[in-house]
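Sample 3 of the quickstart, ligand dihydroflavine-adenine dinucleotide:
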Amino acid sequence: MVSVINSIFIAFIKLLPKSLVSIFAKQYVAGEHIDDVLKVVEKLNNSGYKATVDILGEHFSDKSKINNIISEYNMLYKLIKKNEFDANISIKPTHIGLDISYDHCLNSFKNILRNAEKYDNFLRIDMESSKATDDTIKIYKELVASSCNVGPVFQAYLNRTYSDIQNTENKEKLNFRLCKGIYKESPDIAITDYHEVNKNYLKILEYAFQHNIYIGIATHDKTLIDQCYQLINKYDVDSEMFEFQVLYGVPMDGYLEKHKENNYNVRVYVPYGKQWYEYSIRRIKENPNILLYVLKNLFKQ
Ligand code: FDA
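Result:
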């Protein structure tokens, strides 16, 4: 029954007019062009937040389009440096060639990582669905062997994640983002219960603190954030060993200010690009309440 309701809902979402979705997108996406995202990054930096920039898009298999994306990422590194912004870059493997082949994707990452190093910046490899997990971890391991400017993302909902982290060599170089995980995965490989996902999240966070691993704590879940605070206090973790991360536009009910009061670093994930429509539909499907939230805010003004 639930899956029937889901299918009806998803069919309904696809019927939403682009103009309505664009109202929603304005809150969650910086815009279509590089100038748009640089303006948002500047604003965030001026308010005391770091940023990580993502060009929207996934599952590209056209080589010339992939080359354009690589050039745009390289240009971003250059402009971030030129403007002295506090921002790095997050990239999805299937955006730069994983659907073509492992080697194609690895070479794309190598190209971009050279620029991350050249401009003294950092490359975050986003984690996609479990189909890509093995390859993504392998790519990370190849890249980190000769660079300190790259880090992966791990998803707390995957059963494998704790041991993936334990099995990562060169822990002194490890710098990862921890998120719950956004893709629909089979219960054979993923934890589906909210409380169990949070339990695993905290177990992984504790592991990072115990092993001096730099961690990006990416969540909007206030109950979980309170529990992360408890672990930070328990281990008396230096605030240079972690940062909180949020998606641009997600309401945080005072928690961003709370992080700042504690002198904890906060990084905002800022997506931009021509694929804003597809991204927005994905966000709405993930959390339909946000459509209502945006509409309510719209009529309040
Ligand atoms: P949870 O889902 O419990 O949500 C907590 C609260 O926040 C709820 O009240 C919810 O309504 C609200 N909320 C959550 N998301 C919202 C949204 N988009 N808009 C409005 N309200 C929202 N995933 C992945 O698989 N690979 C990745 O690489 C990344 N990268 C990433 C980077 C950053 C910086 C963040 C914050 C998140 C990701 N994610 C991700 C997504 C992550 O896995 C997860 O799906 C979402 O963050 C939602 O989970 P929460 O931890 O926020 O908790």
